[in-house]
Amino acid sequence: MSYETTENRASERIAALLDEGSFVEIGAAVKARTTDFNMQTKETPGDGVVTGYGVIDGNLVYVYSQNASVLQGAIGEMHAKKIAAIYDLAMKMGAPVIGLVDCAGLRLQEATDALHAFGTLYMKQTLASGVIPQITAIFGTCGGGLAVIPSLTDFTFMEKEHAKLFVNSPNALEGNVITKCDTSSAKFQSEEAGLVDGTGTEEEILEEIRSLVCLLPANNEDDNSYDECTDDLNRLCDAIENAAEDTAVVLSTLSDNHVFFETKRDYAKEMVTGFIRLNGVTIGAVANRCKVYDEDGNVEAEFDGGLSVRGCRKAADFVNFCDAFNIPVLSLTNVEGYHATMCSERNIASSVAKLTYAFANATVPKVNVIIGKAYGSAYITMNSKALGADLVYAWPQAEIGMMDANLAAKIMYAEESAEVIRQKAAEYEEMQTSPLAAAGRGYVDAVIDPKDTRKYLVGAFEMLFTKREDRPAKKHGTV
């Protein structure tokens, strides 16, 4: 598909996104109302945006697609009102909103009329947050105040070659030019800013959105976000422990038919977030990762096993989304402590607090599997029993405790010989860091064979399906 903008481009994107023949347009006859600055001489069909509804694999969705051939897709009063009307319908019907963005910004000719109407979009998105899923795909320019739009939605995608996302253009940043660092590019926004969940060609992005919609509930009261399971519920995951360092592989292995939709896949890769299915039910997954393997099994990246600022914020946002939409949460824990750098020290405490709060505050079913190390307060943060995990499993090779046994022995017996320290380390490992010791104290519900993990998870989430949990009455938390 050519990237050249045409008059039908906005409609073509909608047609490619939705089931064939399902789109029904709303507001096609709307056009600009203002006549200031010779606007009466300009043609503004649909006021530069196509709006309506249709289905994706039978799921009702509302969609708007900006038409860059009309005043470069600039948002005017009627343009914004059309999008707001789509949000009103979506809220009434309890269905997702998908925005396909290609816009030059606010329409200068309409001044405060455009500005006020645009502000109502912020309000509509805020009211819809946590009620219906919101998805944005950027195919052209999304700059200035418009950059807040994808930030207010739940998931964002960018076309990797031509899309631009920025508040301030790269050349407006002191000491920077776009050739030095293109802060508006899909690469920067997905890898550095962490705002974008996925990048690709236009066709790839639209297909990803279709896949995502089929995994998500239609709204926060929808209990139909499941599909028929055609995978063996008792399927063994042989040698899954060999992939423990790259938990994206583990999650794919555990999921029905190996379905795994990873979110923010290029950002904070030491923390994996995404959706899997277990017995047909959508499950949100959060997992620590030590290594990233490519398709050929080569190591692409390695991490120190500590919680990072970016990883915590990424995971906290994801857990909050799952809790808002009643999606059960699975965590795979393999954490040694906190990422230690001068830069991260500025924000690590507040970021860990956000993740701690997200897990503790979530009332959806929560299951934790300790697949490696689980040391100190970093382990507590990763969906531990203390934070309200309903069930906690551990693999036999897991290590659970304050710290590594050898380090603990060196601290406690600093003046003793190497032989004494070695003996005490062995005792500490058996008494304090083994999964059996944690199970003996009730902090782990069962020590399981790694190959049986899928079976245990299917059973656990089925048992927890009707979970109800009350919390102290309050308006909202402040973390």
Automatic annotation (TrEMBL):
InterPro entries: AccD/PCCB, AcCoA_carboxyl_beta, ClpP/crotonase-like_dom_sf, COA_CT_C, COA_CT_N. Keywords: Transferase. GO terms for molecular function: propionyl-CoA carboxylase activity; transferase activity. The lineage of its organism: Bacteria, Bacillati, Bacillota, Clostridia, Lachnospirales. The keyword Cytoplasm does not apply. The keyword Transferase applies. This is Acetyl-CoA carboxylase carboxyltransferase component. Residues 232-474 form the CoA carboxyltransferase C-terminal domain. It comes from Faecalimonas umbilicata. GO terms for cellular component: acetyl-CoA carboxylase complex. PROSITE patterns: COA_CT_CTER, COA_CT_NTER. Pfam families: Carboxyl_trans (PF01039). Residues 1-235 form the CoA carboxyltransferase N-terminal domain.
